[in-house]
Write a structure and sequence with these properties.
InterPro entries: CO_DH_flav_C_dom_sf, Diverse_Substr_Oxidored, FAD-bd_PCMH, FAD-bd_PCMH-like_sf, FAD-bd_PCMH_sub1, FAD-bd_PCMH_sub2, Mopterin_DH_FAD-bd. By secondary structure, the chain is α+β, with helices and mostly antiparallel strands. It has twelve helices and eleven strands. The radius of gyration is 20 Å and the shape is globular.
């Protein structure tokens, strides 16, 4: 979604399959793919984007559902937030369903898609910290039926990017069958953009805790040291919920400090620079979210 042209889109193609969509993009290099359009149309309406052509993905049925595959769920990139928020999906991947239900008002949830959340990569995308915590991967469709798979985190960090003519077709998510949760804070009551969000999942098979913090940086952040520390204190063979409240509090502070660190000390040896009040408030918010997320997952 980086194509700029002086005129508005005058060609709209509506392919019926993923490979047809890839072929359409190859035939029109200046075209922009669109699914729900919640972010793209905002950019068009604000004058930031003037695509010369659009490739609509709404008729591609193969990317609008999900199926099981080798202990994973293969999610179509066209799944809407509203669909992911339903009880049957929540039983499959609870944290992603919670993020989908929190994505915004009904008109946004009905239109916005999982693939759009990933490709737009807005820092406030609610699905992104969940996918990072689950260590999900994306399956990318390319010309002539080519498929390649990369970690979601690589795409969000710019380590691996979409090539011309490629589309995100599916998202592979491991089914952990273990507690997981998603929490977010907004600047107002009710649905809204995150000021901070936390996704946390337990992985009993690997005796691990995975946590990702969203909205405080350009991409979700993984506080790896905090994850390892708290995982070492959980009784994986007994009562996981029997954890000292001081531990959950310390975990929240550990996560917050890792994601919103103190400024580096001055090179001249002067007085340390304090965090600005807004950063202190954000750190407290992240600490509270991480503490509550761990508590809910262990309950």
């Amino acid at each position: 979604m980086t194509t700029h042209a002086p005129q508005a889109a005058h060609t709209v193609t509506l392919p019926g399959t993923l490979d047809e969509a890839v072929a359409a993009l190859a035939a029109m290099p200046a075209a922009v793919p669109v699914a729900g359009g919640t972010d793209l149309m905002a950019a068009v309406n604000s004058g930031l984007l003037r695509p010369a052509a659009l490739v609509g993905l709404g008729r591609i049925s193969e990317i609008r559902g999900w199926r099981y595959l080798d202990g994973h769920a293969l999610l179509g990139a066209g799944l809407t937030h509203a669909r992911m928020g339903r009880p049957d999906f929540a039983a499959l991947i609870p944290a992603l369903a919670a993020a989908a239900r929190a994505a915004g008002p009904p008109q946004i949830r009905n239109a916005g898609t999982l693939g759009g959340n990933i490709v737009t990569a807005a820092p406030t995308g609610d699905a992104l910290p969940v996918l990072a915590a689950l260590e999900a991967t994306v399956i990318i469709a390319g010309p002539e039926g080519a498929r390649r798979e990369i970690p979601v985190s690589h795409l969000l960090a710019g380590v691996d990017l979409l090539n011309p003519g490629e589309l995100v077709g599916f998202v592979r998510v491991p089914l952990l069958h273990a507690p997981q949760t998603f929490l977010k804070a907004t600047g107002r009551t009710g649905p809204g953009r995150s000021t901070a969000s936390v996704a946390l999942v337990l992985d009993p098979a690997r005796r691990g805790v995975r946590c990702a913090v969203g909205a405080v940086a350009p991409m979700p952040l993984r506080p790896l040291e905090a994850e390892r520390w708290v995982a070492s204190l959980i009784d994986w063979d007994g009562d996981r919920g029997h954890l000292d409240p001081q531990v959950t509090t310390a975990f929240g502070e550990y996560v917050a400090a890792a994601c919103i660190p103190d400024p580096p000390p001055p090179q001249d040896g002067g007085e340390p620079i304090p965090l600005p009040p807004a950063a202190i408030h954000l750190r407290r918010t992240v600490a509270a979210l991480a503490r509550r997320a761990l508590g809910r997952a262990l309950a």
